[in-house]
Task: structure prediction
Amino acid sequence: MKADVVVYINEKLKADIRGDQSIEQLVSAATLKGVLSPVVGMPDIHEGYGLPIGGVMAMPEDGLVSAGAVGMDINCGARLVRSNISSKDLDRSTLRNLMIGIESKVPLGTGGKNRAGEIIPLEEIAKKGAAACVQKGFGVKEDLEHTEENGSLGRATLATCSKRAVERGRVQLGTLGAGNHFIDLLNVAEIYDEETARVFGLEKGNLAVMIHCGSRGFGHQVCTDYTEIFWNKAQELGIEIPLKGLAAAPIKSKEGQDYLEAMAASVNFAFANRQLIMHNVRTVFEEVLESGWKKLGLDLVYDVAHNIAKWEEHQGKKVLIHRKGATRALPKGHKLNPRTYLETGHPALIPGSMGTASYVVVGTKDCEESYYSVNHGAGRRLARGEAKRSVDLKEFEKWMEKKDILINERNLEFVKDESPFAYKNVEEVISVLEEQGMIKKVAKLEPIGVIIGVNRRRRR
Result:
């Protein structure tokens, strides 16, 4: 190995990764030329393509960039919206009407398509990100201030994206996708830090909305294309690659620069995607509750990326940090925090699994040891195929019924791979970094309505 490997995990979570290749994948990443020490594994770590999900690695300016170490769903991320709405004042009928309205405006599933690309050209989305939506009236400037990178990563262009990537991107803006992509209606169940929660606009008993999705087929195609390019060019570039999923190129090479530009376009697409979905969610709330979204207090708390490579400063040096299934968590006082959150640190959003709680946390100065990174969710314990075979449907149905959670998919057979039994215990995952002193909990959010991306037509 050229670098050390550090994994934040406890004995209970170790049992969840026995039999997968996540640790071996971290060790492989630690052999890449130039990689800085340490290569980090988060508590929600599980096997991925190349770098495991829940993996973080940093490269110097003369190092490598790896498409697989960012991931297929570039800038998959989470966005949290707060409200002035009391959860207890929403009866079941109103809640269901909100969910039906959201489904009518946000296409779901892998093949979900939208005509938003006819309103906002993909060229603008790729270059400007969420700002392209705001400029067309789909949001306000405060939304950008509460988005990582202000909703736009620099040096983005479609010129380095393949024709196939562009074709897929043109029809998928404003769509949710499938798998673990969701829109959750949440109740703010617990507040752990009153002062920070007040700054974030979170109040116990009020409704919040979390949107989790990414760059759809556009980002997937970019990753696929450049993994092939890097893999095929490795010998010519003089690079030893331990796994195809870790295929990489020198950052300063043409191939490396081309990928960073295409990746930035995908990042911006994902920021715009969540921005447009949020706009449509606000519109539904206005229609169902017959009140303006500003009066309802549907303000964006924050939007964070989970799969991204970005230039950041670490111990006085400029480094390219690859986060794959990891969330940036800057502590209070860090200069890259939004002005609003300079005294608290920006919100880091940790979604749970279907039917379990999500958390809002902040990073501490001790988080520097993980490149100011924290876990991005609960993390899988069962692969999709295994979950579909082994999760007991009746047990899953009893769980959701006991929790009294509305879900857009009546036949839970179709979402067994997203059941809470397929994921690690989110409380256990959160406790690891909390006990290390790397995060502080701010709020606990419990689901009352779940819209999951599914690949079949539904009847109510």
Summary: The chain has a mean pLDDT of 95. DSSP finds 13 helices and 17 strands in the chain.
